[in-house]
Specification:
Number of strands: 0
Radius of gyration: 18 Å
Structural class: mainly alpha
Number of helices: 7
Oligomer: single chain
Shape: globular
Distance between the termini: 14 Å
Low-confidence stretches: 25-38
Largest sheet: none
Length: about 210
């Protein structure tokens, strides 16, 4: 139980998620929010695909890849496989959405924060790499992939709140928008890295 809890905390706070979002890696999350708009829509569909992609790829590389492929060279396959799976799942999701809604086309623009072509700005292969190294069982991989996705969701919630507060409160014009987010999220990233480091030390003691 302690190991699973440590995996959850480590996954939720590691990968420098907060700072990567602050630097605009998530694309739409870095756009300016008009005055009076409380927050942006969260890409829950793509967050779910992030979770599913990491878990599916872990199963594939752990159980179905030939042993002759194992080793350092295997890591080079993570990105192309991640991009292919993200595009495939997103395409399937768009078809299902169009059938259910009765409208031809893709998912609403507000729900397409990430780019499937880049494997969600590299978040999927990076999460897969950490999961492949740390997870020795399916339960461990499930916990890691789930909390990587929840970590992304938490980062986006924090960004939305910072942007909303900066639009409503007295903030110098030069700090509004991206500068304030970069400063705030950079500090949060340091705290997250510290907490993730503690969780990783706990994991080391049980190995």
């Amino acid at each position: 139980m302690i190991v699973l809890a440590s995996l959850a905390v480590f996954a939720g706070l590691s990968l420098n998620l907060l700072l990567s979002f602050a630097l605009g890696a998530a694309g739409a999350a870095g756009r300016a929010v008009p005055h009076g708009q409380a927050k942006q829509s969260l890409p829950l569909f793509q967050i779910g695909l992030l979770f599913a992609s990491v878990l599916i790829l872990w199963i594939f590389f752990s159980y179905f890849v030939p042993s002759s492929w194992q080793g350092f060279s295997l890591y080079f396959l993570f990105f192309p496989f991640s991009a292919a799976l993200c595009m495939g799942l997103e395409s399937a999701g768009e078809r299902i959405f169009s059938r259910l809604s009765g409208k031809a086309g893709s998912l609403p623009a507000a729900k397409k924060t990430f780019s499937a072509f880049t494997a969600y700005e590299g978040l999927v292969p990076a999460s897969l790499l950490i999961t492949f190294i740390l997870a020795g069982t399916f339960v461990g991989a499930l916990v890691l992939s789930l909390f990587f996705a929840l970590g992304n969701l938490a980062a986006m919630l924090v960004i939305n709140e910072i942007r909303r507060r900066s639009a409503l409160e007295r903030v110098p014009q030069c700090l509004r928008g991206s500068p304030l987010i970069l400063i705030s999220m950079g500090l949060l990233a340091l705290v997250s890295a510290f907490a993730a480091g503690i969780s990783f030390r706990i994991l080391e003691t049980f190995q």
